[in-house]
Amino acid sequence: MESLMDLRDFELSPKDRSIEALAKWRSAVRLVKNPRRRFRWVADLVKRKHAEEKCRKLQGKIRAIIYAERAALQFMDVIGPAEYKVSEKTREAGFGIEPDDIALLVRGHDYKKYKKIGQVEGIIEKLGASVEDGVGGDSIDTRQEIYGVNRYTEKPSKSFLMFVWEALHDLTLIILMVCAIVSIAIGLPTEGWPKGIYDGLGIILSIFLVVIVTAISDYQQSLQFRDLDKEKKKIFVQVTRDRKRQKVLIYDLVVGDIVHLSTGDQVPADGIYISGYSLIIDESSLTGESEPVDIDEKRPFLLSGTKVQDGQGKMIVTTVGMRTEWGKLMETLSEGGQDETPLQVKLNGVATVIGKIGLAFSVLTFLVLTIRFVVEKAVSGDFASWSSNDALKLLDYFAIAVTIIVVAIPEGLPLAVTLSLAFAMKKLMKDKALVRHLSACETMGSATCICTDKTGTLTTNHMVVNKIWICGKIVEIKGKESVDKLKTEIPEEVLSILLRAIFQNTSSEVVKDKDGNTTILGTPTESALLEFGLLSGGDFDVQRATYKILKVEPFNSVRKKMSVLVGLPDGGAQAFCKGASEIVLKLCNKVIDPNGTVVDLSDDQAKNVSDTINGLASEALRTLCLAVKDVNEPLGETSIPEDSYTLIAIVGIKDPVRPGVKEAVQSCLAAGITVRMVTGDNINTARAIAKECGILTEDGVAIEGPEFRDLSPEQMKSIIPRIQVMARSLPLDKHTLVTRLRNMLGEVVAVTGDGTNDAPALHESDIGLAMGIAGTEVAKENADVIIMDDNFTTIVNVARWGRAIYINIQKFVQFQLTVNIVALIINFVSACITGSAPLTAVQLLWVNLIMDTLGALALATEPPSDGLMLRPPVGRTTNFITKSMWRNIFGQSLYQLIVLAVLTFDGKRLLRINGSDSTIVLNTLIFNSFVFCQVFNEINSRDIEKINIFKGMFESWIFFTVVFSTVAFQVLIVEFLGTFASTVPLSWQFWVLSVVIGAISMPIAALLKCIPVEKGDSTKHHDGYEPLPSGPELA
């Protein structure tokens, strides 16, 4: 059936859409009642194009400023720099430079003025800051007053009245308002006050109700999206303030703050480099230049919005907010909105096709009613005389035709997707999942594979040193007693060199708060080592004060090691290296023996060490090698050595599996989602953890990155389906695996990532999942969803909600199409046969409200059920409207049409309705029965396949509230608002009859679900339901 709709113009890929594809479906949408509302959550391509042009111009301007400033350096040398004039206000606040002057100096990379001002020391002095102490908390307000806040200008959010105004732009409602005004204008002179205004006022009140309910629903959605947007923009940075290193929100950053930068961070404001190691900055987001920039004392300028590609460092903030070029750029980029989702586009297509059918029915209904009326006048000989009553009659016909369009064009279909997404994203945000791209919610429901990291996602990321191999023996660490025992078993010189290796070769810090409590700031692995070092009697501050760090090679996922060169007090130097055990072991040619003596590392000893590493890894311990080398070359010329190290120790770090992970993995497998672990750890560690989590099965394959890299495409194709663990992998291996899974095997792939180098894999995947705690800003920026608690169980929850969104929209579509078909056919057939429509304009507007906004609220916001994760994922090419849905739609429509047709054409005789008001009583009964059919069909639509549609109904308070409100307002309309709604109060017998007619649809729905659909449809069911049992099993 869906193929008959021809939705080819409404196909959209979940990611990387071209402007042409986005423009194509927009041009295919021909029939829209309210473009402002329909396209509110759709990207504005014109604004986006203008924003991109402005962005390019701004990038060009930034490049030009930098180049021009550099070219003018010689000239500046000749004339000498102008003295900075400081205003009285700035001087009284304790600062020595104006905000615009410092902003221009940094933005223009003006190195000559920078030198004249006293370089970084001069700037720190003029900004009243301190490298060691940072800024004082009591100066924050003053700094924000003088130098501004770190925020960029954003468009003000819409008020509730704006949503009311937009809802009033519905073309059909405008036409009905005109009809209502004309009806009042004609009715008052002919029928007098107040009777002459009833029909017109009824339409106006109905329009008012539709507009208010629609505006409230849309406004609530906008608030949810606003909350989500605020959450997305929360970025925390490490600063030194009040002599303490602490995390602050990027918006709370002030000029003078000392910021600590590391790989993957976003530079939070313009600033000057103070100190660091191997700091490389990617400025492409700001300047458009792809070449990374080395930052050091000679090139100290850091610009807001750029990314730390490698290394680490400290900077002082000099410019914030709209004084930075990034602030101006972000103001520009906020134009254009977010891309629409594939489901929104597809349902726009369905709405367009149904709308065309509805328009045809509307025109035909008006023509049939008008022709019948004219023919009847001609036959009765009154054709020559026309009265105001005749005009009202024709106006009423026109209003009915327009109202049929209101009902026929399912404007709520694409908007229901937005409503469902907004609801799901708010719930997910509470459950620690932050959705950055709307389409990710939908796509996650189709995921067939999750490629997950191990550390922090499957494990707790709370690491402790569990075992250590040193001087040829393994010692288990179980607190202070075991550490004291270790100290007695190894020579003092070996302990000294071990502590030096721990405290010097680290990117973390040990800090003390005002109460003297010790806190370790850094990665969990580094923290575990430092904690062990402190437990062993080491002192971080004394170590750092005694030895001077000369060079650093920071850890990254490619090198898998960290190295430092340290200057000794006597003038010599030592290099320390730590990292992945196999990699560091290959760099060693010596080892410390049980006597504390450095001896050559023989092949047999190397094999024993390797066996030790594998033994620790098999116990699910993460292993690290620590090594040292004495350096004799002159310090100015030497680099950090790459070989001939002495092996000090192997550390086994325990990182327990998170509670609930095993159950979450089992849930994925039951749902047809394959879980693959991709980790940089040792293969034995990875195997042990994977078995504990239930990821690695007997027929599964565990492979190492280097081995995977060497496979041919044909070998990859055959082995990838069985790969469950990939160890010692590089980010490139993860990217290759994702690409092959998607392109070779057609999988829908979700990928987790936390490092800067994971960005390509996150971008390539169907759903990129960045870690909120361990993840870098670069990884988060390339992700679709941020897992705030780094927990695998949260990822599974995102998949559950993805499936819930998909099936909720299916339920709503099934419900709405049923109402569409019945309302169209009953009014058209009745118009053709009797010359009048049983449902008036006011009644149809109420029905439209039930099936549109209220129906979407009830069905599109249902929480996910447990059964959703017991069935296969949604296929990429599966029809959205399934055969089961068409079966339910046609079955319910047929029942309703038969009942309403019998009432319309023979209701008076069957129910013995007599008297002058018999027609209006019958029409009220038809209207009432029709509404109750929709109420019960709304309940039926809660489950497309299963007979028990009451499960969980009372847990969904929104659904229950909508159904209760609909029934209550229906009673109000029929019993008390008949003057405006063309109804009369009904007897209790007719009320019971109306409810019974509606309720009969429930056993009919159960019978319909027993009708089998094609096997091909049920075996690949994507709405989460298993095929129904047959025979005795049905009970």
TrEMBL record:
Enzyme Commission code: 7.2.2.10
Protein family (similarity comment): Belongs to the cation transport ATPase (P-type) (TC 3.A.3) family. Type IIB subfamily.
Entries under InterPro entries matching the protein: ATPase_P-typ_cation-transptr_C, ATPase_P-typ_cation-transptr_N, ATPase_P-typ_cyto_dom_N, ATPase_P-typ_P_site, ATPase_P-typ_TM_dom_sf, ATPase_P-typ_transduc_dom_A_sf, ATPase_P-type_domA, Ca_ATPase_N_dom
Membrane topology reported for the UniProt record: Multi-pass membrane protein
Entry protein name: Calcium-transporting ATPase
CDD domains assigned: P-type_ATPase_Ca_PMCA-like
PANTHER family registered for this protein in UniProt: CALCIUM-TRANSPORTING ATPASE, CATION TRANSPORTING ATPASE
Transmembrane intervals: 160-185, 197-216, 353-375, 395-424, 817-837, 843-861, 889-907, 919-936, 957-982, 988-1008
Enzyme class label: translocase
Keywords carried by this UniProt record: ATP-binding, Calcium, Calcium transport, Calmodulin-binding, Ion transport, Magnesium, Membrane, Metal-binding, Nucleotide-binding, Translocase, Transmembrane, Transmembrane helix, Transport
GO cellular component term, pick one: plasma membrane
Protein's job: Catalyzes the hydrolysis of ATP coupled with the transport of calcium.
Molecular-function GO terms, alphabetical: ATP binding; ATP hydrolysis activity; calmodulin binding; metal ion binding; P-type calcium transporter activity
Catalytic activity: Ca(2+)(in) + ATP + H2O = Ca(2+)(out) + ADP + phosphate + H(+)
Cation-transporting P-type ATPase N-terminal domain sequence ranges: 116-188
Organism of provenance: Sphenostylis stenocarpa
Subcellular location, record wording: Membrane
